[in-house]
Design a protein that fits this description.
alpha/beta; Rossmann fold; DNA polymerase, domain 1; two-stranded antiparallel ribbon; 13 helices; 10 strands; elongated; disordered N terminus; nuclease; 5-3_exonuclease; 5'-flap endonuclease activity; DNA-binding
Length: 333
């Protein structure tokens, strides 16, 4: 997964003297887990496919993006209660179940369904990244998307690049006060797209900042968002361009004198309750209480910060090659 002969599709300027790269780490390690054969094991026979794949993806995006700062962002709460309270179906299909089909709970929070072979790899991956010197960030009660959204909103110094396979993060693209673009890896590392606001608009026919409204109308089965029955991409884009936000659409829907057509009213009225709450669920939070470890601005080191521990981990888990490739990227970024 580290090398590709595929063409990177780019919209807008890509290079900058300094840049903050925010990694959607959970999305990346799930992608790596499913993209690298499970037969990829360490010296003790335990799977290391997610670790190896993630390290190669991180290496690749560092070399391609040339960031000076990198922060790997975590889900400390993959299904926040405040989102579930608004839309109970939110990510329901991802909840792990016990033998009697009841959701497993951990401190009152539903446990995400994670493959048995993946779960033990995550702590090792985090330790490797820490030994390399890549900062890790999270926020209690928030998803990785919200961590990324908060750090992007805070940034006033350098351009930001969000690395993700989640289209919901298209909403973060902006031109000012500091530009934010999205390095979208959802179609695979051979078909990477780097999208600024113009790129998001060209891809979906809507302003980048209106992507949450578009997604809420269309729905997203991967997140358990029902959407509005009968509203697909084209209709959703048309509604967004006509009314702007869902709030404006709802205001028009409840106003008999508005310009909304009878057919639009007929389609949207049954979904009114959903439309009142969906924007808050879909919009990425920008005020999460983010903690970055180690504290600082995520400056990417030229060499590993804990080389001895990195050697130990590489030896223990058979990670010499991907670790060496990542270290090489540090010196070239």
């Amino acid at each position: 997964m580290g090398r590709s002969s595929g063409r990177e599709v780019t919209h807008g300027p890509v290079t900058s003297p300094d840049m903050l790269q925010l990694l959607d780490l959970a999305g990346i390690y799930f992608r790596a887990f499913h993209g690298v054969p499970a037969s990829t094991v360490g010296p003790d026979g335990r799977p290391v496919n997610a670790i190896r794949g993630t390290l190669d993806i991180v290496r690749r995006v560092i070399l391609d993006g040339r960031p000076t700062r990198v922060v790997a962002c975590l889900d400390l709460d993959w299904r926040p209660a405040w989102r579930v309270e608004l839309i109970p179906t939110y990510k329901t299909h991802r909840v792990a179940e016990s033998d009697n089909s009841q959701p497993l709970l951990d401190g009152g929070t539903a446990v995400e369904q994670v493959p048995d072979e993946l779960a033990p790899q995550i702590p090792v991956l985090l330790e490797v990244l820490s030994a390399v010197g890549i900062a890790i960030a999270g926020a209690p009660g928030f998803e990785a998307d919200d961590v990324i959204g908060t750090l992007a909103a805070r940034e006033r110094r350098d351009p930001v690049e969000v690395v993700t396979g989640d289209r919901d993060l298209f909403q973060l693209a902006r031109d000012e006060p500091t530009p934010v673009r999205v390095r979208y890896i959802g179609a695979g590392m051979s078909k990477v797209q780097v999208l600024d606001t113009a790129g998001v608009a060209a891809k979906h026919g809507i302003p980048a900042g209106r992507y949450p409204d578009f997604a809420a109308l269309r729905g997203d089965p991967s997140d358990g968002l029902p959407g509005v029955p009968g509203v697909g991409d084209k209709t959703a884009a048309g509604l967004v361009n006509s009314f702007g936000s869902i709030e404006s659409l709802v205001a028009a829907l409840v106003d008999p004198s508005s310009s909304m057509t009878p057919s639009q009213r007929a389609k949207l009225t049954p979904a009114l309750a959903y439309l009142r709450v969906a924007p808050k669920v879909v919009r990425v939070a920008t005020d999460a209480g983010v903690t970055i470890t180690p504290s600082g601005d995520g400056r990417l080191p030229g060499t590993p910060v804990d080389p001895d521990r990195l050697v130990e981990l590489a030896e223990q888990y058979g990670l010499h090659s991907p670790v060496a490739r990542l270290i090489d990227a540090l010196g070239r970024a």
